[in-house]
Structures are given as structure tokens and as C-alpha cells.
Write a structure and sequence with these properties.
single chain; about 625 residues; alpha/beta; two-stranded antiparallel sheet; 25 helices; elongated
Length: about 625
């Protein structure tokens, strides 16, 4: 490799720093890092520079994998120089840490230690150091902790400078629990790819690294930043997954403070084949296609700023939005594909009961459809109807009412009063009016919707029963408990006949009826119904399933009645939703979320109009 002094201009958007860690298996770690670097460097038409940093001063090897034979200074020499400069300036009375860090960075000029791998790629390398006879002695003498304590902002400012010129910085960290690992992992990366083998020692080493990072960032507010863990199984047989996946899910629950985390989708898509890392004599070549596919899937999570527990369906939809944003122009040829991608993503979030994520997607999709197709076009009205429902769920009732009224007026004129879309808009408007306290108009309007479905579909059609469930809930919320009880009893009988006694909708209706009975001062019957539901959920879904947790919470409300508990159960019972990202924890009718750990990445990627940097 020919040496080149770094000459790169600032990027329009800051890059990312990702560490690669393994408690054991350094060769595999470096190979995975290099393969990921190749994939990242090929993106954005090869214009996004990628820096590899060999921070493994115990066993440096990236330069050899890249075919670099010349002996040049690198990370070790630069850090040693920085420490000497800090000591010299401290002896002369320099006290301000931030100003000192800036001076040291300017004088030491880390750029002179960075080489371009070759002229045909955007890969750059900061090697571990000059591998002469004194290297290992000099590496052992480097006081990582002392360097950090002598000037804490130094590494943080260096990270900012790296991200200003490199789209991706990949750190090859040492094995085990080295001092350098603790300092670099704690300060530099926002993301970490952690390789592990399915054995106790490897998993414990991974957990210890994550816990140290968590403790440092929690107790050092100046270095608090998001941290995202991507666990990567190495040489794991299919039967090993049943053992290591629950352990890693529990680790993530501890460090992020969420409950109910599932890595099912992650490990379905991202798993290294046992022989993949030995498949190619030249690590710079693609090698095993199974390895390449696994790493491409990993980078799909990585590029979209996703957490490992995010479903692959979301990863794909977010990627589709990013790609649609990258299409140049403002006409319909660019706007309509983006609207379709945003609508699909918004609908996904809406199905997951995540209206906070759904709202910006559906709002932008509606605006794009209206601009390019017109306010009364069928596609515009369809997405506006979804937007109105999301606005209502998020408490933006005035906006939701206007949207429902607009859609209802258009559908009534174009489709007729009894069309399914018209009835859906009318039902949504009725629910919104109820939320606004206009009960007279709300109940009358919803009664019309129920009557139309009974007349058009029949009294026991699944659509009619769904509308009946909504109407019973409205009556219960209005305090008409006798009327609500009769409606829920009718609903339960209908769903038992049509769907079966153990169908999810039937169980929802059972819990809702139990809540009304409890408010009607019939606690014995209410408890019996809740026990039936809990028994079914335990047998069918298991003790940790969201449906089981809700049923258990409903039963707990019978034993420890609390003000508002049964009302809350009614609100959720008609729409049991999966506990997305472990957020839903219903205890005695109350939703509980307890984020008390490391922050994941911010979820602002969807509304951003920034140009695409990864494709």
C-alpha cells in the first residue's frame, strides 16, 4: 500500500463510529469488520469514505489482511504523542480540558497517521502502529486510563473530527477485557457489533463489556450518547439459539430498561454460517455468499439506525422510504413512490399501535398524495382516513375531527352513505366526537353505523361484531352500564358462535364484559370470566405472552380494585396489541413503561429530508 496523507473534505452529515468486539476469536472479528467495511465502502457509489482503526495493540492484524507490508506509525504512536503533549502542557499550568484537547489535536495531527488502502476504493486505515521490535513493549507501556484522565475531552473531540470526514469509522477492538478496550468502547462508538460463540465464557465476556459501557456512560454525563448493540453469533448451530437468545434478550432488557424484548427477527436474518469466515483465502474478496448475505442484513439494521429488536419488516420499510427520498426531483415521479413507501410504513406502525411513529409517515404521505393527485382522489382519502385515526389515538382531536369530516363528506358524495369506507369514516368521527365530549352526536352517529352494518352484512358478520364492540365500549365509557352489559353479552355470544370460544376477539370481549360486570357490582362473575381468559392464555400462549400479561393484570384488578382500573381494561380489551419493544405492561389496568438504562438511537430518521448516505 502506498502511503498517502489524508486529504478529505468535511461531510454534509456526521458519520458513525461502530466498534467490533469479541471476547474470543480475534481473527473472525477482524474478518467480519473488513467484510462490513467493503460493503459500506461500495455504497453511495463509492464516494463515502470509510476508516478502519486497528485498536488491537495486543495482536494487530488489519494491515496484514489488507496486504500492507510497510512499517509506518499508527494509533499507538499518535496516542503516545498526545499523552506527552498533555503532560508537557499540564506542567506549564494549562488547566482548561477542552482547550487543551483542541490544542493537542491540532498539534499532533492524527491525519498524518491515516493511509488510503488503494486508489480504487474509499477505504482508509489507521493501523495499530509501527511493528518493530519495540512495538509490544511500547503498547504495554501505554497508560490508557491515565491518558483519558489526563484530558477527558481528547478522545471525544477526536471522535467528532473523525465523523466529520468519514461516513463510517470501524474500530477493531482487542479481545477480552483489555484497558484499551474499556476506554475506547466507553467513549467512541455509538454502535457495537459484538461477536460471540455459544459458550458461557464468551457470553459472559460480552455481557461484562456492555455493563462496563453502560456504567461509564450513566455516571459520566459528558460522554452520554446512544449505544446500540448488534450481537452476532459465530459458528452457532441451530440448536444453540434456544440457549443464547434468551440470555441476550435479558441482557438487553437490563441495559436499556425495557421489558419483553424479542430478538426473533434479528437472529432469523443475521447469523454467520459456521464455515463462512474461512471460505476465502483473500479476505478482501466477497467469499461465502451466506456470510455476505448475513452481513448485508446486519448493515440494513445498522444503516437505518435500528435497534436489534426492531422487526425486519420495519427495517425493510424504513429502507424503502430512504431510497424513495433519494430519488431526485419534486414531481409525481418522485413524490408518489415516496408517498406509497411512507403510507406502508405508517400502516405498519399503526398496526403495531405506535401512533407516535405512524403520525409523521401518514401526514407526509397525505400531503404528497394531495399535492400530486388532488384532495378528493381515492388514494388521498384512504391515507387521510388512516391519518385521522392516528391523530385521534395521539390526542390531536381537533385535527382528527376535521380530517374525518373531510373524508366523510368526500366518500358520501362519491361512494354513497352505505359504502364500507363511508361507514368507517363515520365510525371514526363518532369516536372522535365522544373523545371531545359530544356524546349525543357521537352515540347517534355510531348507532347509524351499527344499524347499517346489521342491515347490509347481517347481525353476526365479523364486521358487524367489530362495530358492535366499538358501540358497547362507547356506551360503557358514557356510563350506560346496563346498556353496555347487554351489548357485550350479545357480542360475546356472537363471537363464540362465529369465531370460537378461544379466538382472540372472543377473549377481548370476555375481558370487556368482565370489566363492565365489575363496575355493575358483580365481582364474582367478573372474576370467573377473567380466570377463564387467563387459563386459556396460559395454555395457548404461555406465561410471558402479551395476552397473558393483560389477562393477569385484569384478574389482579379483581383482587385489588383501583379507581379507573376497569375503565382502563375496557379501553384496551377491545384491541389487545403485541407489546411492541416491551413497552406495554398493564398492571391493574395501568400502562407502565420503565426506560432506565442506555438510550437507544433517536427515532427521528423518518421525518428527516436529509439526502441518503447509505443505500
Amino acid at each position: 500500500m502506498e502511503a498517502h496523507r489524508l486529504a478529505l473534505s468535511a461531510l454534509p452529515h456526521a458519520g458513525d463510529i461502530t466498534s467490533f468486539y469479541a471476547y474470543e476469536g480475534g481473527a473472525a472479528r477482524s474478518m467480519v469488520l473488513l467484510q462490513c467495511a467493503q460493503l459500506l465502502a461500495a455504497r453511495a457509489n463509492g464516494t463515502l469514505p470509510v476508516l478502519l482503526v486497528d485498536a488491537d495493540t495486543r495482536a494487530p492484524g488489519l494491515h496484514q489482511l489488507l496486504g500492507c507490508r510497510d512499517e509506518r506509525p499508527g494509533l499507538l504512536e499518535w496516542l503516545t504523542h498526545c499523552h506527552e503533549l498533555i503532560r508537557a502542557r499540564r506542567r506549564h499550568g494549562h488547566q482548561d480540558d477542552a482547550a487543551l484537547a483542541r490544542q493537542v489535536l491540532d498539534v499532533s495531527d492524527w491525519r498524518q497517521y491515516v493511509d488510503r488502502v488503494d486508489e480504487g476504493s474509499s477505504l482508509y486505515l489507521l493501523r495499530a502502529g509501527r511493528l518493530d521490535d519495540s512495538f509490544h513493549a511500547r503498547a504495554a507501556a501505554l497508560d490508557w486510563a491515565g491518558l483519558f484522565q489526563a484530558c477527558p475531552p481528547l478522545l471525544q473531540l477526536w471522535a467528532e473530527e473523525l465523523c466529520s470526514v468519514f461516513g463510517h469509522v470501524l474500530l477493531d477492538l482487542p479481545l477480552g477485557r483489555a484497558d484499551g478496550l474499556a476506554v475506547l468502547q466507553a467513549v467512541l462508538p455509538r454502535k457495537c457489533v459484538a461477536l460471540f460463540t455459544p459458550n458461557r465464557r464468551s457470553l459472559q465476556g460480552l455481557a461484562a463489556m456492555v455493563e462496563r459501557t453502560k456504567s461509564f456512560r450513566i455516571f459520566n454525563e459528558d460522554f452520554a450518547q446512544p449505544f446500540v448493540l448488534y450481537p452476532l453469533p459465530l459458528a452457532a448451530a441451530p440448536q444453540d439459539r434456544a440457549r443464547f437468545q434468551p440470555e441476550l434478550e435479558q441482557l438487553m432488557e437490563r441495559i436499556y430498561g425495557w421489558s419483553g424484548i424479542s430478538l426473533d427477527s434479528w437472529f432469523d436474518e443475521v447469523s454467520l454460517p459456521p464455515s463462512a469466515l474461512l471460505a476465502s483465502d483473500d479476505p478482501r474478496q466477497p467469499g461465502d455468499p451466506l456470510l455476505r448475505r448475513a452481513l448485508q442484513q446486519l448493515l440494513a439494521w445498522h444503516a437505518g439506525d435500528h435497534m436489534a429488536w426492531d422487526a425486519f419488516a420495519e427495517v425493510q420499510l424504513v429502507r424503502a422510504v430512504r431510497q424513495a427520498r433519494a430519488v431526485p426531483g419534486t414531481g409525481p415521479e418522485a413524490g408518489l413512490p415516496l408517498a406509497a413507501a411512507l403510507e406502508a410504513l405508517g400502516a405498519y406502525y399503526w398496526r403495531r399501535a405506535d401512533e407516535l411513529q405512524a403520525l409523521p409517515c401518514l401526514s407526509e404521505a397525505t400531503a404528497l398524495r394531495a399535492r400530486h393527485l388532488g384532495e378528493t382522489h381515492a388514494q388521498t382519502l384512504a391515507v387521510r382516513l388512516q391519518l385521522a385515526a392516528a391523530q385521534r389515538a395521539h390526542g390531536r382531536l381537533a385535527e382528527a375531527r376535521r380530517a374525518f369530516e373531510q373524508v366523510l363528506g368526500a366518500y358520501t358524495g362519491s361512494l354513497g352513505v352505505d359504502h364500507a369506507e363511508t361507514l368507517a369514516a363515520r365510525a371514526g368521527l363518532a369516536q372522535t366526537l365522544a373523545d371531545l365530549g359530544d356524546w349525543t352526536a357521537a352515540l347517534a352517529l355510531h348507532e347509524q353505523v351499527l344499524g347499517a352494518h346489521e342491515r347490509l352484512d347481517g347481525p353476526e358478520h365479523v364486521r358487524t361484531l367489530a362495530v358492535l364492540a366499538e358501540h358497547a365500549g362507547l356506551r360503557a365509557r358514557h356510563g350506560e352500564l346496563g346498556r353496555a352489559r347487554m351489548l357485550y353479552e350479545r357480542l360475546l355470544e356472537g363471537r363464540q358462535r362465529v369465531l370460537g370460544s378461544e379466538h382472540r376477539d372472543t377473549l377481548d370481549s370476555t375481558l370487556a364484559l368482565a370489566a363492565v360486570l365489575a363496575r355493575c357490582d358483580e365481582p364474582v362473575m367478573a372474576r370467573q370470566l377473567r380466570e377463564q381468559v387467563l387459563d386459556i392464555c396460559l395454555r395457548r400462549d404461555g406465561p410471558q405472552a402479551p395476552s397473558t400479561r393483560i389477562a393477569r393484570a385484569a384478574l389482579a384488578a379483581s383482587a385489588r380494585p383501583a379507581p379507573g382500573a376497569d375503565e382502563a381494561v375496557i379501553c384496551v380489551a377491545e384491541q389487545l396489541v403485541p407489546a411492541s419493544n416491551g413497552i406495554l405492561e398493564l398492571e391493574a389496568g395501568q400502562g407502565v413503561a420503565a426506560p432506565a438504562g442506555l438510550d437507544p438511537l433517536p427515532r427521528e430518521r423518518l421525518a428527516s429530508t436529509a439526502p441518503l448516505t447509505d443505500s
